Amino acid sequence: xxxxxxAIPFFLLLIFIEIGYGIIRKRNTYxxxxxxxxxxxxxxxxxxxxVILGISGTLYELVVATYQLAQxxxxxxxxxxxxxxxxxxxxxxxHRLGHEMxxxxxxxxxxxxxxxxxxxxxxxxxxxxxxSFLFYLPFFVLGFPADVLFTVVSLNLIYQFxxxxxxxxxxxxxxWIFVTPSNHRVHHAxxxxxVDRNYGGVFIIWDRLFRSFQEELSCEPVxxxxxxxxxxxxPVWANLHVYWRLLKDCVNAPGLRNxxxxxxxxxxxxxxxxxxxxxxxxxSVDLSARFDPKITTFSKYYTLVQFIVSVILSxxxxxxxxxxxxxxTTGAVLYLTYSFFVHGMWLEGRPxxxxxxxxxxxxLIIGVQFAAWEALLVNEISTYAVISMIALFISRxxxxxxxxxxxxxxx
Length: 411
Description:
Layout: H1 4-24, H2 32-51, H3 56-67, H4 77-100, H5 102-108, H6 119-122, H7 133-142, H8 146-161, H9 181-187, H10 205-209, H11 235-252, H12 256-264, H13 297-320, H14 326-348, H15 353-370, H16 375-397
Helix pairs in contact: 2-11, 2-13, 2-14, 3-7, 4-5, 4-8, 5-11, 11-12, 13-14, 14-15, 15-16
């Protein structure tokens, strides 16, 4: 059972509580642009599952049917406990390979792009996780029922939500056993001392056992993000940028063996004499700086309102996917992907954003006319889109859309 959908309301509630706590303590760890970007990627991660059919369940059925594997009894407590422990060990190696091989890093990198660290960062997930099923195979062979495994997977991910915070200090002896906020802050750091450490999901004992543990040190304050910053609020580019550069490097590399080495060597590895396609390769980067392009106040809050509406529409599609045909679901997902892309353009101050936004709103008006919604909802959505167009027109003519900042590092 996938418990993530049921947990989403609690995730959002805890995010609001953390924001309030941070403001009261005068240590707010949220920025509007970074939070919108993280939640956009979380929404896209859930939406893509509606149109890209997962192979894990199909593969499970195939393995069980082909080899007539006996299934463990799901009513036994030891089955659940052993599955939970073994999956956390499998997750450790999945996570570690996601950092140590470029082809897997391209999928995992999305989770590490935020230069803030808060509960919103926990929801920043990839939309192209194509290799997790490899780590499910041993469980199928061992006879763990699929519903047991995927419930355990959900519980493991839910546990990881709370460790994404700066507000919880070290927790004494628990630091030796469990992944805690302190342990996980290290994992999200870009300080050279902390990079590629603390891979555990629930238990930190795997890191201690396999020598990948690093304690958070008071003498080395954590700086969050990538050592080669993304410098973008575009959620689509955030998912694809590593693979785009990896593809270019593979094309330039001579011979099949070298192309494979680029994919399966650590991120950043390159053949001697071959220039990397990464624009930041070899450049000095201020790791203490945070990507924060300046935009107008109108742009900031207009984007926030539009983003909230997009999230509501996303949840509506997710909750009603079972009642929609595949074509309607795919259309809705493509539209919402474009919406999150446009929100990112707003946050970067892109010069073409006005026309992209008009086109996005026009698509929404046209799209709802053909969707299987109640008439009242069609009227409400259309009215919202028209009001947004009017606000956009007024703001442009009154000078509220200033010149773009032009601070970004992607196409």
